Amino acid sequence: MNKEVMKFNSLWGGFRASRVILTANNLRVFENIGKGRTADDLASVLQTDPRATEILLDAVASLGLLRKSRGTYRLAPPAKRFLLPDSPWYQGDMLRHADTLWKNWSGLDEVVRTGRPNRAGTRDHDVFIKAMHNNAMMRARDVIRALDLRGVKKALDLGGGPGTYGIELAKKGISITLFDLPNTLEVAKDLIRRSGATGIAFRGGDFHIDDIGSGYDLALLSLVLHSHNRIENLALLNKVFNSLSSGGQIAIHEFKLNEDHASPVPGALFSVNMLVNTEEGRSYTPREMKDWLKRAGCGKTALKDLGDTVVVTGRKR
């Protein structure tokens, strides 16, 4: 089979690997495998069919998350790092959220026909917010390093979800206001308590209509704008601009999308995720975000490329 055929097959066949990993995570294979188990032993623990369990475990091993030796399965290093709940890099909640996305994405045909989102999967809000924490844990330090924090004493983490970015900012002695919906803040409070972070205040509400406070030296909007349309984003950035102190800055963190809107792959596919799951969301380009910042009143804007995401900043003159 030539390389072109193999590449094409991997494009349409990628769902199989995803489904195997999501199912293994749903069944809690990784946290129950301990120091090693046979398929029959694990099936007894999980109360699953032995034959089906063996086939699933073999597939997981083929993907590099398990190691199989003489009929015994053990965790491979990536599984230990990302799929054990006591790991600081745990991604299990993200995979549980992805299982909900799987159900929603399965309605993509109808979404494209109608332009309406598909919310077939029942979303557990706590799992969603913890999934956002899983995701942010992988990115937060790089994002915070990309910011100019000179003179920043008071910061707003707007739509900050689990507060992961706020935690990293608080470690630098910055006073943080975490703004999000009240039910989101309940999850965030527990995560922040467990992190040991201090200096974080909570403000509940809808940032489109409620007061977000004022006097901020920095306002961070991390992975917020992609859920909304252009008009809503410009209005929100105007509101955020007015909440800044003189010389304050807005920092937008979003998935990278080039000017052709068709690359790179993660940004283009994430736009589909927003198509499926929101009324009018999508991925946006740095040029669009810079334009909104300038129209909101910011002077010089700047861009930092973090790989699959970007940080776009603008300062209040």
Question: Quick summary of this structure?
Answer:
Helix content is 49%, strand content 19%. It is an alpha/beta fold and 317 residues long.
Description of the structure:
- Helix content is 49%, strand content 19%.
- It contains 14 helices and ten strands.
- It has helices at residues 3-26, 29-32, 39-46, 50-62, 77-82, 92-105, 108-114, 125-137, 140-145, 164-170, 182-195, 230-243, 265-277, 286-296, and strands spanning 37-38, 66-69, 72-75, 154-158, 175-180, 200-204, 216-222, 244-255, 298-305, 309-316.
- The radius of gyration is 22 Å and the shape is globular.
- It has two domains: 3-83, Winged helix-like DNA-binding domain superfamily/Winged helix DNA-binding domain (Arc Repressor Mutant, subunit A), CATH 1.10.10.10; 127-316, 3-Layer(aba) Sandwich (Rossmann fold), CATH 3.40.50.
- Strands 6-5-4-7-8-10-9 form a seven-stranded mixed sheet, with helices on both faces. It has a three-stranded antiparallel sheet with strand order 1-3-2.
- The chain is an alpha/beta fold and 317 residues long.
- β7, α12 and β8 form a beta-alpha-beta unit.
- α1 packs across α4.
